[in-house]
Amino acid sequence: MIEYDSAKIEAKWQRRWAQANAFCAKDFDAERKKRYVLVMFPYPSGDLHMGHLRNYTIGDVVARYYRMLGYNVLNPMGFDAFGLPAEQAAIDRQVHPRDWTNEAIKTHKRQLEQAGFSYDWARMVNTSSPDYYKFTQWIFLKLFEMGLVYRREAPVNWCEEHGVLADEEAPEGRCWRCGEIVHAKMLSQWFIKTTEFADELLRGIEALNEWPERVRVMQRNWIGRSMGTEVKFYIPAINKSVEVFTTRADTLFGVTFLAFAPEHNLAEELAKIGGKLDEFTSFREAVNKVSTIERFAEEKEKSGIYLGLNAVHPLTGEEIPLYCADYVLMEYGTGVVMGVPAHDTRDFLFAKKYELPIIKVIERNEDSSNEGEAELPYTGYGVMVNSNEFSGKKSEEGIRELNTLIESKGLGGAKVQYRMRDWLVSRQRYWGVPIPIVWCDNCGAVPEKYDNLPVILPENVEFTATPSGRLATNPDFVRTVCPNCGRSAKRETDTMSTFVDSAWYFLRYCDPKSEKEPFRKELVDYWMPVDEYIGGIEHAVGHLLYSRFICYALNRAGVISFKEPFRRLFTQGMLYKDGAKMSKSKGNVVSVDHFLQKYGSDTARMISLFWGPPERDVEWQEGGVEGCFRFIKRLFNFFVSTWDYVKDATSVNLENPSDQEKEFLHIIHSGIYDVTETLNNWHFNTTVSSLMILFNRLSDAWGKLSDKQKGLMSLRFLLKEALLTLLKLLSPISPHVAEELWEFSGQSGFVMHAEWPKYDERFLKRAEIEYGISINGKPRSTITVQLGTDLEDVRRLALEEPKVKSLVAGKKVIRVIVVPDRLVNIVVR
RNA sequence: GCCGGGGUGGCGGAAUGGCAGACGCAGUGGACUUAAAAUCCACUGGGAGAGAUCCCGUGCCGGUUCGAGUCCGGCCCCCGGCACCA
User: Fold this and answer.
1) Distance A692 CA to B42 C1' (A)
2) Whole-number Å distance, CA A481 to C1' B73?
3) I need a surface site. Which of A127, A342, A649, A737 has the fewest CB within 10 A?
């Protein structure tokens, strides 16, 4: 008998699929509806492990299922190939990042092919190739043109020896190379104005009803819209006003100080005039010395200094002292807060420390009966007190009326504030997309012309230079001419964050060979949006929000005609082993190569689904692997050994099926039903169970037949049908063995292109139905009746069942509930 | 603190308000074998009982219902995210 040989079978079918272009997506197919299935593309580094394989399997099963349902499926794959590790390899191992990256891509591609993933490789995208990053630059220029790109100073992690560090290179505020404390250093950098779309992006979330709720919440929090009031406080010493933002205008009468962020550009000037420059300078230095993490740690005591000047309260005219305080954030609001110690925890702590007055202006509502009501700070809403004409009003009412009053006096008014900040895209690194900007002494920062794209990333640079200086070490790259005036000029030597590369790759898949433009609009409009986007929760805000932003912006530019790129989002769980997420750095990986060699990809794909629900984290379990492997082998052996019995069977009349025939029909159709339903609901772990049940029932039922019955044409025909159906149902999950048996049984074409089986309602239920009988809700017995037995008869039979009869004897039957095809509950007293 | 997701056998996990524990793993017994592996068959939530059976069981307390793992109210615990955001 033929033996199951996974390696041989899998190599064979991967070759055949490739030769036949079996995974090719067809642009503008008029016959079929499109489905765009996408798994977040990987950063190519090292080998794939089983955790990756699980993610890609989810996407591939969906893609293969949709194909069999008759959709025109786009299932692409590519590589997010720029980034830090490649550059680090260049330093550590003297390999060029390009070679290191291309090597990793080759390995990844081979492993993905060996797993049998049905990607349309003709559409492969590599973000580090000039054909691709040309258009990353194109998009940057487009945003520039739209006024969505600007430059300003922003802090970077700075190590005296190693220059600019990425966040992951500065764990716990220390340089990962030398361990020195990392400081914040201000550097002029490029920003993309994501805040321009803050409100649109926020409102857009409402329509994303096929996204997981937690991701929507995370995006809402990230955008962080809050409604409040902007109020001007006049500072006589400089004859200027300063604006503060507050969500609690109702506490305005309780303001006893104003606090500036140390980074605020007015703070130093005020300290100077106030005669407190020395104190201010040493305070600011002290603040800078502590790492950002420490400064904003939860238990950190608040500190600050008096700036020696006062402002005037806009409503009461009272003098309010000006402070500089370390707990005030420059990045949020205006960088100045009004201090209301009685009704804000932080202001309260600050006021206590510096002995500032605490004025209570909000009284708790009476109905929120609180005995210890004297306790301050009280941060909730309530009734205003000590607030002149506003005393007695409710907080909500006070806020509304104060907004109007402040506005009428020209002191500010209602204001919407976002937590979201603009997107810092400059990276002081070599291995990334060159920012297409030219620095000209006459014209300043000038965007490169579209025609001059791509600005090629040079091969030759000094990797021994500090990260920020590497690209600058190639004089041929730096030297250029100004696109504006034609005089000699210098190129920008920062590169772009890789989040820019990955914010549009899903558009490139729609038209990957386009040369003049990033993609043809009609192709993107055909394929987009992505119907099923699969990836990790770690991208809930960063990648997903940037991608949404890019689409909103390109939509405004008229480049695409939709806004939301991802119709449905599926966040898959992580694979854990020994209590930690499977990752190379943790040293707990199970390599794909090793696994595929031992069991084959059909088993790998099956077990990675079978471990648990796809959206949940699961723990690696060697035991389950054996189970799947055995199942595939059993199925293979059964198929090969029984096929001879049934292969010649021809269609028979099944108008009045016998009991055995009914049993086979039931097994087949309930199997189709279960597999289809679980696939539709993405319960892939139970899809695997359903396949096992289908097979187990089938082999049991066949095994129980007598030799004479096995000779009957009708049963042979039904088994044949069942086996071929099973192959189709198995095909999305374990496609190679399905193809092998499909061919073995003499079928034509690929099973992956076969039509998905349909079930017949009539056969979903067994010919005989077992009813459970409960008395007062406790299961007591069972009866078996013919399918379709009248419910009245079921009720009668249940009551006549001997055990039930004896248990009910002497009691009064109050009610009998008959649930069709399930159970009878008898209520007695 | 706020938000999101979970708590079911020895383990991973099933279960449109309808016989809890499907499927798989592990375990026990048996068949085959000189033996082991592989394979196949049977059993396998806990307790009581010789047995038919009975009692208890889905984190805890209560409620709705003929019937609750599932719905409602109140807690406890675990995991993840966010947070000096004014």
Assistant:
1) 20
2) 73
3) A649
